[in-house]
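Reopening this ticket.

The earlier resolution said the output was attached, but the attachment link was broken on my side. Pasting everything inline this time so it's all in one place.
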Amino acid sequence: MEEYKSFREVRGRGTGDIRRGRFEKIQVSYLLEEARQIKTQVFKDTSRTIISYNDSPDVGFSASLNPYRGCEHGCLYCYARPTHEYLGLSLGLDFETKLFAKMDAAELLQQEFDKKKWQPQVIVMSGVTDCYQPIEKKLELTRACLEVAARYKNPVVIITKNHLVTRDIDILKELNRYQAIKVCISITSLDKKLATQLEPRASQPKRRLLAIEQLSGAGIPLCVNVAPIIPGLNDHEIPQILKRAKEAGAKEAFYTMVRLPYGVKDIFSQWLERYFPDRKDKVIHRIQEVRGGQLNVSTFGDRMIGVGPYAEHIAQMFNRYRKLYQLDQKIILSIKHFKRESREQLSLFE
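Inline output:
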């Protein structure tokens, strides 16, 4: 049988690339028959902490919670793909098919809230990988964490591109009683075909708009993330995405420029060659144009919105339509209702 070290066509996956990780000396390979039958595998993540902290000045939050490592959505452009290389795995197909679940995430979160040193603050869920990716339907780790947050009344921001978030409307409504929830739905494109090619296992655009409509109807504060903007590919959709999101009930809008760190730029280039060979050069050139001649820039500030005339053009267009559709409202969350359950119970005996 013929052996493949890197292949492109795997049904339902963003990429079939299994290039060797940055830190590995051995290259994994598959037989062609195996490659076409790869199923999602879930492994237990034994991390003993659940909240990650960052001091980046351009991400808008310092505390985040990610119940899963890896993401079955398979988005080609995902800047989180290289994190799998720290596990000795590929940022390509492995990132989409070998997932790590923090099975005791809710217990770890409760332990954090019970610590005297915990300072109530907004926790962002999906700071790296999507907390509502398909495996969440079975494992319900995100739901369990939200239940803990609701009991302690600690504010949460959810970022997702999956309609599955609507399953937890009951908990989100409870959090909203204490001004402690905001949901951000990411929409990359309204084109069903393009969205499927870019984000094969994420919800279709109409389902994401439906999620905004359903959550907004339940009184949940909604934000739309036009993310990522890929110059030359989906930037022309900005006005229509904002318009449709407003009609569905969103109150706030943001955007981020595509980021292609390390090997992500290679699999993204392969993807363009496969689906848009006639536009590949234009898209690559436009990305370089907003990235100072490169495909990725990690400089704070610049990495999120890009630099140069074309990046400024995108920013001006986005801001103009955000204001037109009144998506410049500020959703404010509160920490004043936070309470530690265990301390309240103990106080009865003190």
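Reporter confirms the inline version is readable. The longest helix spans residues 309-324. Residues 1-5, 344-350 have pLDDT under 50 and may be disordered.
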